[in-house]
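All the exercises in this workshop are built on plain-text protein records. A record pairs a protein's sequence with a compact description of its fold. The structure tokens are whole numbers drawn from a learned vocabulary of backbone shapes. Once this layout is familiar, the rest of the handout is easier to follow. An example says more than a description, so a record of this kind follows.
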Amino acid sequence: MSSSKLDQSLDTIMGESRQFVRRNNRRVRGGAKAIATPVGGVHKPTRAAKAAEKVMAPTGGPRSGEGKIQVSNLPMDVEENQIKDYFHSTIGPVKKVLLTYGPNGKSRGVATVIFHKHDSAVKAAKDLDGLKVDKRPMKVELLVAAKEVPNPVPARSLGDRIE
């Protein structure tokens, strides 16, 4: 590089010597050779869209339909069929058990249990919350749909709270 280039701006130097051009995040030797692109873009054949399947979401409404609970703090070696058998024998008929697994395929100790009746889920949450399994208290929570959550009680003003 000569001393005359030291006096020039970087833009001027780059404009004069275009040895490398970036294309698709790669440095390509050559100048301003342009790749011809088709006019109007590329046409790809498309398939007809599949009809969306109608999925019935469980309502889990109070005293009607199925009920769900989430059981956490379970031992890592517990399997779905063991959970299903236990809740079936202590509470009532179980529709489905879903055990949560981590990225390594190991259980996270959290299961969702779906009962045929909402009352069974309520009973399980009341009776089995805090029950110790391998000296660890399991946590049983009742899951309800968002539309069934009661509205929060409005907070009283500060003036109403002063005695």
